Amino acid sequence: xxxxxxxxxLCLFIITTAAAQPSRWQQHVKYSMDVxxxxxxxxxxxxxxxxxxxxxPDTLTRLFYHLYWNAFQPNSMMDNRSRVxxxxxxxxxxxxxxxxxxxxxxxxxxxxxYQQVKWIKMNGVAQTMKQHETILEVVLTSxxxxxxxxxxxxxxxxxxxxxxxxxxxxxxxxxxxxxSQWYPKLCEYDYEGWHPTPYVAREFYGVWGDYDVNITIDxxxxxxxxxxxxxxxxxxxxxxxxxxxxxxxTGKTITWKFTAPNVHDFVWAADPDYIHISKPVRDGMVLHxxxxxxPEALTKQFEAFSAKQQxxxxxxxxxxIDNYREExxxxxxxxxxVLPFMDKTFGKYPYKQYSFIQGGDGGMEYPMATLLKGAxxxxxxxxxxxxxxxxxxxxxxxxxxxxxxxxxxxxxxxVTRNFYGKSTAEGYREALQRNPSDKNLAQALTFIPEDHGxxxxxxFSLVKSGLEEPLTTHADHFNTNYAYSNAAYAKGAVFxxxxxxxxxxxxxxxxxxxxxxxxxxxxxxxNDLIQVAEKASGxxxxxxxxxxxxxTKTIDYGIDSLWEEGGITKIxxxxxxKMPMPIDLELTxxxxxxxxxxxxxxxxxxxxxxxxxxxxxxxxxxxxTNPSYVIETSRKLTDITxxxxxxxxxxxxxxxxxxxxxxxx
Length: 665
Ligand SMILES: [Zn+2]
Hints:
The chain is α+β, with helices and mostly antiparallel strands.
């Protein structure tokens, strides 16, 4: 105590540092793996040495591992869940993932996936294992004490499943191996305890640490992976230092050695026909792309397209293939172009490498890499942005899928806007000009904000569907896939844009950067984000979390009436919804001038800074218990041509019709 008085400056320094860097203990892993792949049988064996450090204050008496690929077996949880969801129709369609459907049920023994741990030892002592399909429980002979590091050795055997979901062999583009979730992976233990989440559909949550991975495979195969290749000059394939003479391998196989620091997963992919291109983008950072053009596989895809999709390519498969090739050829240029914007807006990308790898069944994010079908800018920007909202933040995706997919979708929109120089609404307006009779577009423009219009649209549809469930629902436990995706992707993005409405767009941008600086590599949850936002803005936001995240309550404000009283024009607004919000109300006058009237909501205990250049009048707070509020202007009633609540359309009001009143005198 006395030291604090003696060194007040030092004390202050410590306090500020502590406040800027919230501490949350993290478990730590160091994986060393050697695997040998047999490309004829699609089976591989591996040895794994894992140094596990228990940084928690708890004594661990058992451990849990993920064995994801056991999901790709008939009657697995993934299979069952998919078929159950397939029996319910949402918007006239079976609610299962079109990639999974009932395909797992029909897998033959040589097509299934499996991961079998043969034995496991802790500090050299054999341990007992209990298998729960995709989760392996290890009952320890002696506990792992707080602050202890133990060595876990295991041997495993696996079969690469036919491509069903995320990983597998021989995907639709003809890529031989998409190797994600391919090794026994320790489950995360955090302040909530163990997270042994069975693999049903989604999502991933892992322990940060370092990976050394050696992969021995047929020497004709080119590999792409999370991490840095350590023996590039022995392997070649475009990885070697330019001008190096790569030694000719006399054996049938070669061993690829990768190392990846500070990641929570490791992905790889392999194909003998991959084209490998790379591009240095800034000091010590290189982008890579790996793809192949299989006219056979792509023609098959084209033939499966709907008539409308085929029309987009002039009903000619060759145009589709040419377009597909061009996307891959330009992917690194496009990615390089947006990196400075991403760094500036969301925080600096910290790794020295990022790879766009053709593989998988859509777009799926991994540390330092993504598996993609095609390389269109939308999916490319989306998956890369996951480097921020999954790979660096590492929120538990089962609990907070929206903080991952939603924020990534939010960021994707802004990166896309930066790339094309055009907002979503601008795109809608242009489309409307080309097609003035499109009522849906015209209608959408009356309620979408300048950016993230698609997300707002999807959120409103979700509300209308009656299928909405709170964002706090476990990602696997939503009643419908429909509700999951619209909640995670769309409502999550709306959360972030609407936060900008509440605290101001500039402040929201500051919050995003603070969030990055304070919480990357620490698995933040929603409370952590809210606290960052509250500290930066000086506005209380617990109510925002409570209403928008924990419940499905919706917002509905409206303009009720306007009248003149003693030379003052009064406007009454009403709250007809279940969720309170602060209100921006804009008045437009005959002479074209505008006034902004701002009413903070009482639970905020603060107000946002003015956002536009126009004149703003700030009112006393609107108590959320009060169904109406009256604002006033000194301008004449007959001078007003329009009154509009939230002209920015960032507040997700489910009924915007009564937000806007046009007056004709
Ligand atoms: Zn995503």
